[in-house]
Amino acid sequence: MIETCLFPAAGYGTRFLPATKAMPKEMLPILTKPLIQYGVEEALDAGCRTMAIVTGRGKRSIEDHFDISYELEHQIKDTSKETLLSEIRNIMETATFSYTRQKEMRGLGHAILTGETLVGKNPFAVILADDLCYSESEGVLTQMMRIYEKYRCSVVAIEEVDSNEVHKYGIIEADMLEDGIYKVKSMIEKPSIEKAPSNLAIIGRYILTPDIFNILRMTKPGINGELQITDALLEQAKLGRVIGYKFKGIRYDCGSIDGFVKATNDFYKRSQK
Question: CA 20 to 30 Å from 255, out of 16, 35, 88, 169?
Fold first, then answer.
């Protein structure tokens, strides 16, 4: 059982300025819950009990959200609004939270490497909070846990994207092992349409084996001087140790305004049923 889920949450969220000037993008709400809470709930459902969060300057509200607010608790005690805090109380009672800071923004790979001090030498999950996933049955990370238990190697969640969108994602080249499960042979970060090996894009859900940290340390920075997780995964893939899983569910790119609005509308419609 994988115990730890890592949340890289140090990014600036520039696509949502000025809203994210003083508020972390991970705290942007879909209805009444911030994005990162949806991610934590997904991790809990998958069996993770330790939430390791990589933050940066101006991200203190994430820590405060998963902590007790004594003044608020006192104000709403024994009122009808007290039940509104039941979900977050349950999270705080069930999960343990630990934090470290990424001192400079050098890519997702660097953020994951920064989290090594929280993860240790065990396999771990990674959730990017601005990739909000919805499934009518079980969460995406729960689905991926079963794949990991079977293959015992790194697992990346993938989905088909339009060819005009491949330049936004890490794209894999892979052989199908069974329905929805692929053995990754190669991958490329944000390719042009001409260079994309497929339209299978990696989204913000990973299960990684701990050898990824040594690989990241030896990986040279790529595009824009950033340390890309796809470059490290490529090294694992060369040894046949990466599985791509086409998950069941819907992903909302809440790092974009269009995706954020669509998620808000869809979640609202579901809440009214």
Answer: 88
Q: What is the CATH number of the domain that holds 267?
A: 3.90.550.10
- Distance between the two ends of the chain, CA-based, in angstroms? 35
Task: Look up residue 204 and give its two tokens.
Answer: 């913000």
152: β partners: none
Q: What is the pTM of this model?
A: 0.94
Q: What is the number of structural domains in the chain?
A: 1
**32-41, 100-109, 262-271: which has the minimum mean pLDDT?**
100-109
**Where are the strands (E) in the chain, listed by range?**
4-8, 29-30, 33-34, 50-55, 96-101, 124-127, 131-134, 154-160, 170-178, 181-189, 200-208, 242-246, 250-253
Of 44, 16, 125, which Cα lies nearest the Cα of 26? 16
Average pLDDT, the chain: 92
Over the stretch 176-220, which tens digit does the pLDDT of each residue have? 999 999 999 999 888 889 888 999 999 999 999 999 999 999 998
Domain extent, residue 253, equals: 4-271
- The single residue listed with the structure tokens 């939430």 is 51
Buried b (16+ CB within 10 A) or exposed e, 31-61: eeebbbbbbbbbbbebebebbbbbbbeebee
Task: Note the pLDDT of residue 76.
Answer: 81
Confidence at residue 255, expressed as pLDDT on a 0 to 100 scale: 92
Which CA distances in Å does 263 have to 108, 197, 209? 23, 29, 31
Q: Are strands 124-127 and 131-134 parallel, antiparallel or unpaired?
A: unpaired
**Structure token pair of residue 231:** 């470059």
- Measure the CA–CA gap between 167 and 169, rounded to whole angstroms: 6
Token pair of 158, please?
Answer: 């993938």
Distance CA 47, CA 141 (A): 9
